[in-house]
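[READ THE FOLD]
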Amino acid sequence: MTTSEPIVFDTGPLTHFARAHWLGPLKAVVEGHPVLIPDVVVEELKEGARRDSRIQAVLDADWIEHRELRTAEEVAAYQQFEELLVYRNRNRGEAGALALASTAGGITVIDDGAGRRAAKKHGIENKPTLRLLCEAIRSGLLTVPLVSALADDLIISNYRLPFVLGGFESWAQENGLMDA
């Protein structure tokens, strides 16, 4: 990633990093990039913070810029992704993140399958949480034991990851994500 590309987060990764008290390493991983969340993600985070006060840390973070989708291009992009993804008020964050990334030329951080597929279909670069963390290991920013502990804490916070507690390193190696 070049430092000029904005990184646009969906609600899920930010919620679980906050619940697990790991926003600091996440900030280090994205340092040098504008970090954006669209207004629909802000609303989902506010709703989550009413149920879990730890999520308020995301809303208060000075390194995360809240962006309202308001230009005609942004609204049209949101409507396109809303039609594709939103069902019973679910996936609004993914639709907003994809709309903002598509109009701002950014990279999304979306872990849900439907959002990842939509990003791929529409040519939007997406870096799921685990890919970001593995890149940080390869660059020397984070260590395998740190990311293993972080991944375990995300699982404990009820985040769905493709391995069980203690399984990050073997999963990453099996999927070629630890290679330089």
